[in-house]
Amino acid sequence: MVFVVDVGNTNMEFGVFEQGKLCQSFRLVTRRDITSDEVGLQIRTFFSIHGLRPEDVEDVVITSVVPQVMYSMKNAFRKYLGKEPLVVQENLEIPIENRYSNPAEVGADRLVNSFAALRKYGAPLIVVDFGTATTFDVIDASGAYLGGAIYPGIKVSLDALVGNTSKLPRVEIEPPAKVVGDNTIASIQSGIVYGYCGAVIHMLKLIRRELGVEAKAVATGGLSGMIGRQTGAFAAIDKSLTLDGLAMIYQEGHRYGR
């Protein structure tokens, strides 16, 4: 049994893989001040609920874009699972050619997603992750990671709109019945959802034009389902892409040393 963890800016997602298949997962809100005991006790509770045994964990694999929580995360796994974690880009290599001008600048989660999508769907490929930020990651026909684009996430955009206007209310992120809203809530929802969908479609168009090939697009992240349904722009909606990627990287076993 392999335990994998994706630490994002908004949420931390945990997954249990047995024989290469994701069998259980759960999420916690990412807090920069979280303690190792809080993480460890949540993991133990999750294991107990699902009848899992901590002693059956062979290894722990982590990817993180939040350095502030890593001390607590590592200590939680040492203390509660008795494992020294494998950390992507620290002691675990992502086996993908990285053509970024400064390869160290690329977020580990973006490379994990790209590696997983390449293995699952083939190249050329555009991977769109709808998280705190919306990232577009591009893999060329040879399977090399080229780079991509970073765009404010849909929730970040809504927070900025509401936080910088006096009278606009916070709304649920869901598509309204009509593009032309006849009240303030519907108008905000139209702009946030349909405007965002338009930006996604346009970015995919520009990336494909630059690549010179009709690369397939794969979406992941919390709002990928809604955006996918509204745009019809994706060959696949794969919400477990990052966790799958961590398990695949572990299986490949390209380690810097332990």
> What is the molecular shape?
globular
Instruction: Please identify the structural class as seen in this structure.
Output: alpha/beta
Strand count, sense and closure of the main sheet? Answer: 5 strands, mixed
Helix content: 25-40%
Mean pLDDT: 94
Number of beta-strand segments: 10
Question: What is the overall number of helices?
Answer: 7
The low-confidence runs, each spanning 5 or more residues with pLDDT under 50, are none
Distance between termini? Answer: 19 Å
Rounded radius of gyration (Å): 19 Å
For the largest beta sheet, what order do the strands appear in spatially?
A: 3-2-1-4-5
Instruction: Assess the beta-strand content as a share of residues.
Output: 15-25%
- Helix and strand pattern: EEEHEHEHEEEHHEHEH
What does this molecule look like?
With 258 residues, the protein is an alpha/beta fold. It has seven helices and ten strands. It has a five-stranded mixed β-sheet with strand order 3-2-1-4-5, with helices on one face. Strands 8-7-6-9-10 form a five-stranded mixed β-sheet, with helices on both faces. β7 (133-139) and β8 form a beta hairpin. The longest helix has 28 residues, at 184-211. The chain is globular, with a radius of gyration of 19 Å.
